[in-house]
Amino acid sequence: MELLLARHGQTDLNVDERWQGRLDLPLNATGRAQADALAAALPPGIEVIVASPQLRARQTAEVVAAARGLEIEFDALFRERDFGAFEGLTSEEARVQHPALWAANAAYRWDLQPLGAESTQEVVDRVAVGLQALKSRHAGRCVLLVSHGFVVRCLRYLIDRLPPQDFFAAERIPNGGFIRRSLPAGGTTHASPGS
Asked: What are 154-158's contacts with CB under 8 Å, separation 24+?
């Protein structure tokens, strides 16, 4: 399976570099332009479009789907990480409102997370289930998956078999950006630290 991993276009929360998580904002004008640019930049041959059901991913995928004449499959396993108490906050706001969690770097660890948030392990496990199902449903096809920054991080970790210490160090994909991966038939992704 050929898998194109795309991140949704920009929202107003991305502009201020706020944790967006489950907050469901639409694309802003820049994000809509990024979705148009993504549709133009993607290679030919896409057969299936799968997207997170969150509005920003949905709107990005809809632009590509309209340009390619394809339907969209929505899959909640690829929704963004729930960042709990950090959602909607900037780094500075999180530092002031949750100083102990901020000092512990809670959003960027395997063994700790903001209050009410999904752990990194939970998100990786959820995305791994989605990836295996995607491979089963669309083996041998070219699939575009439109999701979120943390989800793409999880997918790269799983597909590229990154060591756990490199999970948070991997470069973040930009809004409206995409990367390509080839997945062999069968096989599984590697296990996470807590698996």
From this structure: 154/123, 154/124, 154/127, 154/128, 155/3, 155/5, 155/127, 155/131, 155/181, 156/5, 156/181, 157/124, 157/192, 158/124, 158/127, 158/128, 158/131, 158/189, 158/190
Sheet containing strand 72-74, strands side by side: 72-74, 48-51, 142-147, 2-7, 178-182
In a domain, 125, yes or no: yes
Q: Look up the domain containing 168 and give its range.
A: 2-83+119-182
- Number of compact structural domains in the chain: 1
The DSSP secondary structure of 132-146, one letter per residue, reads HHHHHHSTTSEEEEE
Is-contact 110 164, C-beta < 8 A? yes
Q: What is the pTM of this model?
A: 0.93
**Nearest by Cα to 159 from 137, 176, 135:** 135
CB 175 within 8 A of CB 146: no
Please give the positions annotated as active site: 8, 80
Helix (H/G/I), strand (E/B), else coil: 35: helix
The string of pLDDT tens digits covering residues 46-81 is 999 999 999 999 999 999 999 999 999 999 999 999
> For the domain that residue 168 is a member of, what is the CATH number?
3.40.50.1240
User: Is residue 163 one of the residues assigned to a domain?
Assistant: yes
